[in-house]
Amino acid sequence: MIRFVVSPDRVLTPDLAARLPGRGIWLSAHRDVLETARTRGAFARAARGQVTIPPDLGPLLQDGLLRRIADLLGLGRRAGQAVCGYAKVREWIVEGRAAVIVQAIAGSPDERSRLLSGARALPVVAVMSGRRLAASFGRDHVVHAALSRGALADRLVTESGRYAGLAGLAAPTRPDRGGEQPPGAADGLEQAGA
């Protein structure tokens, strides 16, 4: 779900952190739901009056969610809960420390398979470019990263699911759960074109 508020000048404003003051308008994080709400006047009805909807609302939301994902990775790095690089990520997977794997969208599916060998049940988030992923770690180039279990990993999976829903991506499944989605991934995680 994504929260929106109406600013004093009646402009619809995304509230991705759900902290802005005012009466919130909640909407499912799916591209088609957003487009339907925009074209059918649902925002105006919910706000009980005319609202100005930014013409680039979809890209604005996607960019904001990617920023939040990058911030979570940076916070995880500073807290010692995230590592990057094939060797370190593989080490965390073998030790059972990794809760979620992050791969750049240009990362090879074959390389991901080798990385995950023996742990294919781990959720894989692939929604950002290698450059943006590298910036989260203060590096020039990063393809793989891992987060340890905890609130940061849970939030990253949730934010990635929201992004995937807005980008119109299919939801991944976890083989160890008989096709169920990973916790907090109601909207999907697997691949994106951002």
Characterize the structure shown.
- The protein is of the alpha+beta class and 194 residues long.
- It folds into 2 domains: 2-55, no CATH class; 60-177, Ribosomal protein L30/S12 (60s Ribosomal Protein L30, Chain: A).
- Helix content is 41%, strand content 14%.
- The chain has 7 helices and 7 strands; from the N terminus they run βββαααβαβαβαβα.
- It has helices spanning 31-39, 42-47, 57-78, 86-95, 109-116, 130-137, 151-167, and strands at 2-6, 12-15, 25-27, 82-84, 98-103, 124-125, 144-148.
- The strands form 2 sheets. The protein has a 4-stranded mixed β-sheet with strand order 4-7-5-6, with helices on both faces.
- α3 (57-78) runs antiparallel to α7 (151-167).
- The longest helix has 22 residues, at 57-78.
- Residues 170-194 have low confidence and may be disordered.
Give me the secondary-structure topology.
Elements: E1 2-6, E2 12-15, E3 25-27, H1 31-39, H2 42-47, H3 57-78, E4 82-84, H4 86-95, E5 98-103, H5 109-116, E6 124-125, H6 130-137, E7 144-148, H7 151-167
Parallel strand pairs: 5-6
Antiparallel strand pairs: 1-2, 1-3, 4-7, 5-7
List keywords for this structure.
2 domains, 194 residues, 60s Ribosomal Protein L30, Chain: A, single chain, alpha+beta, 7 helices, 3-stranded antiparallel beta sheet, 4-stranded mixed beta sheet
Order of strands in the sheet with most strands: 4-7-5-6
Oligomer: single chain
Average pLDDT metric: 83
Radius of gyration: 18 Å
Short description:
It is elongated and about 55 Å long. The protein folds into 2 domains: 2-55, no CATH class; 60-177, Ribosomal protein L30/S12 (60s Ribosomal Protein L30, Chain: A, 2-Layer Sandwich), CATH 3.30.1330. The model is unreliable at 170-194 (pLDDT under 50).
